[in-house]
Q: What sequence folds into this?
């Protein structure tokens, strides 16, 4: 549990989403970090955690703007951030072209619910528009790209969970986990295995994709039913074909470093109705 620092308490009133909806971090704190980063005062990760670096940046902003230096991001402090300090989440419907504190909070909330949209920057651009629409479709609400009361109400719900337990695709140490990474969001886990290590299917299913896919490099996607799919990325070699049925543990490819990768590893994602979830919650 996070300590209830003055910063968190000051921001809580601006939050339209309960903390229980998120595995870690809070959207209004993340939005504050985005504003502080754009002001050149914060160089840490956009993680929604009101740690020492965030509080120091708040004090620096207050000192710069001649405000009371107390480390509490109240209305006057947020106003000093300009556009990125305005509008608490839920104070207005959000749509393409808007900029604000609420937009940054929405980006963070959607990412934790499985729909990351690129950089946390407080700007409602095309990628956020797509993420909002995908979330709305997954939740069965009106797909209009506008984050209004219905969309925010859906974001109050629990994070997505796998309907099944899965098997580890490789036996290897965990590298990057699921969650914030710098100013973006990592939608899976990285398993650090040697090149050419066999990668096994996490559950019985049907291969729905087997080929190159932009930053994923060589990618295999398996549909396991009930809206559950698994992604196996950065493969050196693919050993299955489109439409092939595989069993748990069957080799789908070999660990590599294709696509946007700095070294051999398996990037493993789990999605339910297109929403990414933390794979560790589905693994034994």
A:
């Amino acid at each position: 549990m996070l300590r209830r620092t003055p910063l968190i308490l000051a921001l809580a009133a601006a939050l339209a989403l309960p903390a229980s909806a998120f595995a870690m971090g809070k959207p209004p704190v993340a939005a504050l970090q985005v504003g502080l980063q754009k002001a050149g005062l914060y160089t840490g990760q956009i993680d929604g955690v009101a740690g020492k670096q965030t509080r120091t940046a708040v004090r620096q902003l207050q000192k710069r703007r001649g405000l009371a230096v107390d480390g509490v991001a109240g209305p006057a402090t947020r106003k000093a951030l300009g556009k990125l300090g305005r509008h608490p989440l839920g104070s207005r419907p959000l749509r393409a072209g808007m900029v604000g504190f609420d937009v940054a909070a929405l980006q963070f909330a959607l990412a934790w619910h499985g729909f990351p949209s690129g950089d946390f920057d407080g700007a409602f651009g095309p990628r956020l528009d797509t993420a909002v629409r995908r979330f709305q479709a997954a939740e069965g609400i009106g797909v209009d790209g506008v984050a209004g009361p219905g969309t925010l109400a859906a974001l109050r719900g629990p994070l997505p969970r796998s309907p099944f337990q899965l098997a580890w695709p490789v036996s290897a140490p965990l590298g990057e986990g699921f969650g914030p990474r710098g100013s973006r969001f990592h939608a899976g886990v990285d398993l650090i295995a040697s090149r050419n290590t066999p990668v096994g299917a996490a559950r019985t299913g049907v291969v729905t994709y087997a080929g190159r896919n932009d930053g994923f490099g060589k990618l295999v996607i398996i549909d396991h039913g009930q809206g559950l799919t698994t992604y196996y990325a950065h493969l050196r070699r693919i050993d299955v074909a489109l439409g092939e049925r595989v069993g748990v543990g069957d080799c789908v490819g070999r660990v590599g470093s294709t696509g946007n990768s700095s070294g051999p590893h398996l990037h493993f994602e789990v999605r339910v109705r297109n929403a990414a979830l933390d794979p560790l919650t589905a693994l034994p």
Notes: The helical segments are 6-12, 27-38, 52-64, 75-79, 101-112, 126-139, 149-155. Confidence is low (pLDDT under 50) at residues 1-22. DSSP finds seven helices and eleven strands in the chain.
